[in-house]
Amino acid sequence: MTKRRPIRLVVAAALATTLAACASAARPTIAVDPMAPHVELDILGAASLKGALDAVATAYAAVDQTVSLVISTDSSASLETKVEQGAPADVFLSADTTNPQKLVDGGFVTGSIVVFAGNKLTIIVPRDNPAGVTSPKDLARPGIDIIAAGDEVPITKYATKLVQNLAAQPGYPATFAADYAANVVSKEENVEAVVGKIDLGQGDAGIVYVTDAAASTRVATVEVPDRANVPATYGGVVVKASPHQDEAGAFLTWLAGPGGQAILAGFGFLPPPG
């Protein structure tokens, strides 16, 4: 039986040290013209990136003092639609590569997709775990209320694959996937909302990214077997309609480089798949 593991928050002091080190290490890579006008970059990011992007914005201000980042987060699918509809955006950071590829195919971006992070999935339950969910098998148990996200949200696609992988594991019933689906009681706008409902005890379990679980103090996790887990790949693009192409490209390059990677790692994100 898989044991429930408590969530540990990122230690603030260690993170502050990481940010300072990243900014210091990355500063020489971008020349700062003291006479250059200040630029605000609109960054549309997946909901699972929210905490990390706040830290990224702080660090990047030290890297290029002529640029500041304005962060907006939501589900990747929703943000992709906003870009297509002409919402102000310079960079789109998605929790998958499917949504950025839609923008590439539609002619809405400059250049190609930059893969900048990876992630894995876990199961979260309220900290007091009233339903007694201690194993992935319990997700198919009658009476378990599962909080999921909308069908087009990347976490749902990853979670669907995870459930399929679990169903193929020894000891899982043939009806596991169908029973899991029958237990889904709500579909939220994004993964942040899934965590929020489990935080409040409004559901018994949900499948989220490891980084989202780590950001909450009111949930516990149920480990997913490595052999069944699903790697998530995050991709970013520069929006063609951006009036700040050079600055947007420089930021995305930095995010995928050592400075950005150190900050993302501090929030539990994995390096981009090789």
Give a topology summary:
Elements: E1 4-6, H1 12-26, E2 39-46, H2 50-63, E3 67-74, H3 76-84, E4 91-94, H4 98-105, E5 109-119, E6 121-126, E7 146-149, H5 154-167, H6 176-183, E8 184-188, H7 191-199, E9 206-209, H8 210-214, E10 219-222, E11 232-239, H9 245-256, H10 258-266
Offer a concise description of the structure.
This protein has helices at 12-26, 50-63, 76-84, 98-105, 154-167, 176-183, 191-199, 210-214, 245-256, 258-266; strands at residues 4-6, 39-46, 67-74, 91-94, 109-119, 121-126, 146-149, 184-188, 206-209, 219-222, 232-239. It has 274 residues and is α/β, with parallel strands linked by helices.
Structure description:
By secondary structure, this protein is an alpha/beta fold. It has two domains: 4-118 and 233-266, Periplasmic binding protein-like II (D-Maltodextrin-Binding Protein, domain 2), CATH 3.40.190; 121-222, D-Maltodextrin-Binding Protein, domain 2, CATH 3.40.190.10. It is built from ten helices and eleven strands. A five-stranded mixed β-sheet has the order 3-2-4-11-5. A four-stranded antiparallel β-sheet has the order 1-10-6-9. It starts with a strand and ends in an 8-residue tail after the last helix. The relative contact order is 0.23.
